[in-house]
Design a protein that fits this description.
The protein has helices spanning about 40, 65-80, 95-105, 115-125, 140-145, 165-180, 195-200, 200-205; strands at about 15, 30, 80-90, 115, 150-155, 185-190, 215. The protein starts with 14 loop residues before the first strand and ends in a 12-residue tail after the last strand. The strands form 2 sheets. It has a 5-stranded parallel beta sheet with strand order 4-5-6-3-7, with helices on both faces. A two-stranded antiparallel sheet has the order 1-2. It contains 8 helices and 7 strands, in the order E-E-H-H-E-H-E-H-H-E-H-E-H-H-E. The radius of gyration is 19 Å and the shape is globular. About 35% of the residues lie in helices and about 15% in strands. By secondary structure, the protein is an alpha/beta fold.
Amino acid sequence: MTCAPNCPTCAGQGFIRREVPIGHADFGRLFPCPEIEATKLYDFERRGIYPEDRVTWDDLKAVPGVQRMKAAADELISRGYGWAFFWGGPGQAKSVALKIIVRQLLESKQDATYTSMAKILENLRAVYGEYVDKRETAETRMQRWQSCPVLAIDEFEKARDTEFTAEKRFALVDARYEMNIERKLGITLFASNRDPQEVDAYLASRIFDGRCLVVKLEGVDMRPAMEWR
């Protein structure tokens, strides 16, 4: 990754060191140059955001509950850590809201990823495939999902109930609860069509932790009203 060759901040290196005293948490660490383009810093598509994902909060004004989702997202981002769980029937713009949040974070040069529970499970299962690099294990892949600075998980409930699904979902959520809530590092956003109480009692206990933001969305399915533009 490189910046502009004549960048006055990093001289084209793409990274800078902060002037902090010895012993400071940032001492000796490299940080992206503030002048570098966000698209050079992060591969948006690998983080689940594609060029067509250009909808903004203003485009969703007619959807009930959007302002509550935005307020929850703003609170989380301002604080820098925590959870938000958006749930309600189909067509409430939950997926779009997650993508808006992740795209805005990436554009502001903060690492974030949008995905679905099914894709996470597929990624973990694929490690057992014939053509996968055998140096990689399901554990190393799980560790990457567990440690994402900001992880937005769509369709949280849409995974066929198997022992594998239950085990991996528990491992992911438990680790992120420890990181985001107990250690106050990073953010997790969830979206689901079902009440989390119906998905898993253990997970629901964490989702309804008083420190987590739960937004229940009620309204008609907005998709039938959609038009080409």
